[in-house]
Amino acid sequence: MIEIENLVKNFGKTKALDGLSLKIEDNELYGFVGPNGAGKTTAMKIISGIIPADSGSVIISGADAGRESLRGRSNIGYVPDFFGVYDNLKVIEYIEFFASAYNMVGRDAERKCLKILDEFGFTDKLDFFVDDLSRGQKQKLCLARALIHDPKLLVLDEPTSGMDPKARIEIRNFLKRLNEQGKTIIISSHILHEISELVTGLAVIEGGKAVMSGSIEEIETKMHMENP
């Protein structure tokens, strides 16, 4: 279980999170929905151990994420809302670089890299430079590298942004399979209908707080009651 308790985070005079509290069960495919600037990305970075909270806590399977060692954080795969700066690497070099960051080397690592690239449709693009990929392809490659170390928890910040409809469907189906295999997944979007058919639970985040949370049916009922 992931227990998020009263998270507060300020950037200067801007309050990104203002007492965010949530509980996410193991093996959930959980959605964060809210407008840009609502605090979704900040929450995901704190959950992933990338930045600290000013106050509050994130407890993942009984361990405080803010105090976890790097080894503990290796159980998390994170996909940011922007790709990064690896344009001078080839696709195969990119995935091998991240594999080596998790001490994966040799033939076993090579086989795993090729296997996951094949799953994402990169078999014929191994020698392409990352800079030559489309935005959607870069997002798929970023998701592939987040999975290279087989993490238990995936934290995905708008992973289908920039993808065409076909690619979005492929990623959604892939995430469903990962969830069925036992992975806990947190995914964000600023558009409810983009993830409503995918997630098992949902939090609507506004102003750094969870203003609604529950199943899709519960959220839709609450929204209908507030906006008849």
Task: Give structural notes.
The chain has 228 residues and is α/β, with parallel strands linked by helices. It is built from eight helices and ten strands. It has helices spanning 40-47, 70-73, 91-101, 106-119, 135-146, 165-180, 192-195, 216-226; strands at residues 2-11, 14-24, 29-33, 55-60, 63-64, 76-79, 153-157, 184-189, 201-206, 209-214. The protein has a six-stranded mixed β-sheet with strand order 6-7-8-3-9-10, sandwiched between helices. A four-stranded antiparallel β-sheet has the order 2-1-4-5, with helices on one face. A hairpin with a 2-residue loop joins strand 9 (201-206) and strand 10. Helix 3 (91-101) packs across helix 4 (106-119). The protein is globular, with a radius of gyration of 18 Å. The relative contact order is 0.19. The model has no long low-confidence stretch (mean pLDDT 88).
Q: What key phrases describe this protein's structure?
A:
six-stranded mixed β-sheet, alpha/beta, 228 residues
Concise account of the structure shown:
With 228 residues, the protein is an alpha/beta fold. 35% of the residues lie in helices and 27% in strands.
Query: Span between N and C termini?
Result: 34 Å
Note the main sheet. 6 strands, mixed
Low-confidence stretches: none
As laid out across the biggest beta sheet, the strand order is: 6-7-8-3-9-10
Estimate percent helicity: 25-40%
Number of strands: 10
Q: What general outline do the C-alpha atoms trace? A: globular
Strand content: 25-35%
* SS content category: alpha/beta
Q: Please, how many helices? A: 8
- Note the run of SSEs as H and E: EEEHEEHEHHHEHEHEEH
